Amino acid sequence: MPSDSTSASQHDSLLDLLEAPLARLAEAFAGLPAFASPLDNLANRNAIASVLNEAAVRMGDNYPYFHPLYAGQMMKPPHPVARAAYALAMAINPNNHARDGGRASSEMEIEAVAEIAQMFGFKEHLGHLTSGGTFANLEALWVAGQLAPGKRILASEQAHYTHKRITSVLKLPFDSVASDTSGCMDLNALEDELQRGDVGTVVVTMGSTAVGSVDPLPEILALRDRYGFRVHLDAAYGGYFRLIAGELDEPARSAYLAMDEADSIVVDPHKHGLQPYGCGCVLFRDPAVGRFYKHDSPYTYFTSHQLHLGEISLECSRAGASAVALWATQRLLPLTTDGEFARDLAAGRRAAKELDRRIRADSRFVPFVGRPQLDIVVWQVKGDSLAESSTMAQRVFDRCAVKDLHLALVQLPAAMLAGWRGTYSETITCLRSVLMKREHELWLDAIWERLSSATDLETA
Ligand SMILES: Cc1ncc(COP(=O)(O)O)c(C=O)c1O
Prior knowledge:
Elements: H1 7-27, H2 42-59, H3 80-89, H4 103-119, E1 126-130, H5 133-147, E2 152-156, H6 162-170, E3 174-177, H7 187-194, E4 199-205, H8 217-227, E5 230-235, H9 252-257, E6 264-267, E7 280-284, H10 320-332, H11 340-360, E8 365-367, E9 376-381, H12 386-402, E10 408-413, E11 427-434, H13 439-442, H14 444-459
Parallel strand pairs: 2-3, 2-4, 4-5, 5-6
Antiparallel strand pairs: 1-7, 6-7, 8-9, 9-11, 10-11
The protein binds pyridoxal-5'-phosphate (PLP).
């Protein structure tokens, strides 16, 4: 099992890395007269140190998300360059609402977002960072509602739960479209809805949260030609797989290659993009939608005639540090199909395929009907009934945690598990693993050994 450095030593070296850049940044303001800082005073320093120690103790009450044995929810540690760049930017704490609050970091956001738009093949775009995927989707659906007021928004049953909530906030009619047993939007069910003639937007999920399924984008685009509606891609989790589309299996590969034809895309740098939380991104293919954002703030835009990001985003204050972290990460790891960033994504995907292969070969488990399309694996522990399997999944989950292996649980229609002959409405609790760290590939034997021995106790 690979183990070269502990998490503590990684933190130390991160602090070392920051020393010179912090001094460099201070030089830019060296001409200003000195003023007192709370850190000048020893009593203050001691008080701060003591509170930080207390906070460290509290933070120890967490799952070890940074460790390769954490293979549960969609949690990926930010890259050290992102953590360091974020901390560096904190010396300024810029606000990317307007250039008045974040001149340099606004430029960095514009550059970083343009690179993301390029990754998706958008020739032109309007876009910016958001606090996360939910807000990014809200903006995309808000624009959709401005363009087609009162028309319905459709998303698949496996779409993220927030779409229903967002449309209720926006007061737009919403309906779910059935998914097939692989978790992908059912095209016949979609066409039945489209025939009613009142659909404004179809939300296409490029990587569903529960199982990583990819909706059939090329076929949905063909339906757009016939029925006329907007296509919004929720690629909050799965967007970056565009970089390794060539390594995905069909039909996901073709779906990824067609992303440039969408009207809007949401991707979350704080999921697969190695960023700290608070970093989503929304992109529109037609920059003209910027007209909907027009507002007349009497107090924010004075220091520049260039575009202020607050003029094209619904949120007002936003962390400029998020943009600095993203910019630095993409500078170190460019979003190219042959770079390290893409290779790391591919390693997680290989880990998922290998875990799925082992599950399929093991009679103690029942696999998901579909093969993993991205890097999420879902499976069931074989029991005599749905209720028994669900209870066994919970117990395996608990036993794995005792062995430091952290998986996740998910409730799914039983029809999504291989061999199920009952009705679609019956649900089962399954085990789920998101193998989104590059280290997961090297740690797969260690993961399997723990899962296997936790399951032995169950099925012995
Ligand atoms: C597909 C998808 N869309 C939207 C979201 C919501 O994103 P956030 O949690 O950043 O608000 C998620 C979160 O997991 C997601 O997986």
